[in-house]
Design goal:
With 468 residues, this protein is mainly alpha-helical. The chain has two domains: 405 residues, MFS general substrate transporter like domains (Growth Hormone, Chain: A, Up-down Bundle); 30 residues. It contains 19 helices and two strands. A two-stranded antiparallel ribbon has the order 1-2. Helix 1 runs parallel beside helix 6. It is globular, with a radius of gyration of 26 Å. It starts with a helix and ends with a helix. It comes from Timema podura. It holds the Pfam family MFS_1.
Length: 468
């Protein structure tokens, strides 16, 4: 999934016409020039589509908007029908749609955007589905560490996309990545359907010993989870504290992850092949950071140096304030390409501290409603996935250094402030609304109450007769 989503910005960067400044110097131009001995000033160097900032954002973020619209419904579908089949067929259908996207784009850009929205609606099943699998397959003490490995694999997909996108585009044009994505969906679908099951109880190939161990260490219940108590959830300050940090982390991730290829090609004047490799560096740093910080956080808590909530707060500060400082440094570097890439790489490395912080905090608050509350948090984060590129594209319509500096300063402010909410209201304790009472249990409880009531009435009647 991340390979597919991460390669799209590279394709979009190759689609769009760009103007490169030849000659000049930093002092008399608000752009980064390309050194040349000629007297040329501007020249169109690549791309075939010209879009305004809003259309460009919709092309980049259409899939994210679709996911935002579907998370809550998808979570409920996973709770009712299970994760395995829904996620598996989602990737298969998504692969077919990706193969058709170049044709849709040539018909009309908005047909491409609409199909992207549909693809996003389907992919909205994945994140809440994963949260449900974590609860049913992983022990509580192992969730943060193992989940960090799973989601770091997403970044590995991003790295593969960055390293291969330039070569694919150079060989087959901007259409190449779409066809490649469609082909990849087939082996993924086959492996998913063979390997993944909704719970240990439903897996036909694990040993009875392993199944018994998981059943004893995890409270596995294959019954359909009742509808989440949304009023209590949405008035829970610890839950909103968790969401606030996820929004801050999402803003920095989407700003760098989505806009970096455009920034490198439009402002720093890198070629598509150069951009594909350079764009991978921040993601490589984040991959290393995610695993390192998850292991460090687990080590610190296991040794008793910090308790869980204090550990969350410390790592969250690093994950949000650290990148904000890096964002403020970038505008001071002008057109120093190497320094800018280094600072953005450090920003993503610091951003990875979130995996040692409150990354899986929603499972602490409510394991029973993991799918639903993960879906709601992902819904809010998806708003960021749309708003961050939209704001950047609206500000940088002319792609000047001043415009991009505004993007960096704005991102710094929006990334650093939300963590304050978590410092005051964050919690790692199970919330009262996590308790589930199934209908059958409720009926049995009522029957027991009625039985006790009848026994009491009978005893009272017998006592009355005896007295007589």
């Amino acid at each position: 999934m991340t390979y597919i989503s991460s390669i799209s910005p590279m394709s979009v960067a190759a689609m769009i016409k760009r103007v490169t400044v030849i000659g000049g110097n930093d002092s008399d131009l608000d752009v980064c020039p390309v050194e040349s001995t000629s007297n040329e000033t501007y020249t169109v160097t690549s791309g075939e589509f010209v879009w305004d900032g809003f259309t460009q954002t919709m092309v980049l973020s259409g899939s994210s908007i679709g996911m935002f619209m579907s998370y809550l419904v998808s979570a409920r579908l996973c709770e009712i029908f299970g994760v395995k089949r829904l996620v598996g067929y989602t990737f298969l259908v998504g692969g077919v749609l990706h193969c058709l996207q170049p044709t849709f784009l040539r018909v009309h850009v908005w047909l491409y955007i609409i199909v992207g929205l549909i693809n996003g609606l389907l992919n909205g099943i994945v994140l809440p589905g994963f949260s449900m699998l974590f609860v049913r397959w992983l022990e509580e003490n192992e969730r943060l560490r193992l989940a960090s490995f799973v989601f770091s694999a997403q970044i590995l997909g991003t790295l593969c996309a960055m390293f291969t996108a330039g070569k694919i585009i150079a060989a087959f044009g901007w259409q190449g990545p779409f066809y490649f994505n469609g082909i990849l969906a087939v082996p993924y679908f086959i492996s998913w359907m063979y390997l993944v099951y909704d719970s240990p109880n439903k897996h036909p190939r694990i040993s009875e010993e392993e199944k018994s161990y998981l059943a004893s260490s995890i409270k596995i219940d294959d019954r359909v989870v009742p509808v989440a108590p949304w009023h209590k959830i949405l008035t829970s300050s610890p839950y909103w504290a968790h969401i606030s940090v996820s929004l801050a982390v999402a803003w920095i991730s989407f700003t760098i992850g989505t806009e970096l290829p455009l920034y490198l090609t439009k402002v720093l004047n890198y070629s598509i092949e150069q951009t594909s490799v350079i764009s991978a560096l921040p993601h490589l740093a984040q991959l290393i950071s995610n695993i390192f910080n998850a292991l460090l956080s687990q080590f610190v808590r296991d040794k008793g140096y910090l308790n869980k909530i204090v550990c969350y707060k410390v790592f969250n500060i690093v994950a949000t304030v650290g990148p904000a400082i890096m964002m403020c440094i970038v505008p001071q570097l002008g057109c120093n390409h190497v320094a800018i890439i280094a600072v953005l790489t450090v920003a993503m490395f610091l951003n990875g501290a979130y995996y040692g912080g409150s990354f899986m905090n929603h499972l602490d608050l409510s394991a029973n409603y993991a799918g639903s509350i993960s879906a709601f948090a992902s819904t809010i984060s998806s708003i960021i996935s749309f708003c961050a590129p939209l704001l950047a594209n609206l500000i940088t319509d002319e792609n000047t250094l001043t415009a991009w500096n505004t993007v960096f300063y704005t991102s710094a402010v929006l990334t650093s402030l939300p963590v304050v909410i978590f410092l005051f209201f964050g919690s790692a304790e199970e919330q009262p609304w996590n308790k589930i009472i199934f209908d059958s249990e409720s009926r049995n409880s009522n029957v027991n109450i009625e039985s006790k009531s009848q026994i009491i009435d009978t005893e009272k009647g017998n006592n009355f007769i005896d007295k007589k």
